[in-house]
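User: I'm designing a mutation panel for DUF2460 domain-containing protein and want to avoid disrupting the core. Could you give me a predicted structure to guide residue selection? Please restate the sequence first so the numbering is unambiguous.

Assistant: Good idea. Sequence first, for numbering, then the predicted structure tokens:
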Amino acid sequence: MPTLPSFPVLPGQAWSVHKRPSYSTRVASHVSGREARTPFYSYPLYEFELTFDALISNAAFPNLGSNSLQSLMGLYLQCQGQYGTFLYTDPTDNSASGQLFATGDGATTTFTVMRTLGGSTEPVSWVTAVSNIYLNGVVQTSGWALTPPNTLTFTTPPGFGAAIAGDFTFAFQCRFLDDQTDFENFTSGLWQVQSLKFRSVKP
């Protein structure tokens, strides 16, 4: 699988940041007031909205990073708007430690890496690094491999009932929500983006 470009970390990003988990549900209402609800998503998709107060196209303002405009606009152009995908590392939601994500059955060797947020467990969009894998709490220094975006494969099937856990970092595989985005040159040498929206996609 090809390596995806990463969303840049830029000093000119402003507050606030919006993160919207979303589902799709069909709701059929009856005249009695009862409802029949059918969920279409097993796991949520996430929509993000960011604002950038200051981007520069040169090195005139070192505190804003060099060529930050090119970094952000370049990613947008590389993705061709909504078409391509990229990896977004959410600063507040990008790692798991000791995360239990599967149980061995003595035959299965391939497992999807999962994470738990509150009471909800869902697949990780894209695992960026794995520092440790555990079987029943014991670190496994070998015998496993990570396949992008989120699959862990063991050489030997974990035993029946074996708890499979890991320490890892992850990102969200995303696409932009629009085929055009407004980059505003609001004063000499400085640009801004008042709203940049993108959403996660299912691998």
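For picking mutation sites, this is relevant: Residues 68-79 form the longest helix (12 residues). The radius of gyration is 21 Å.
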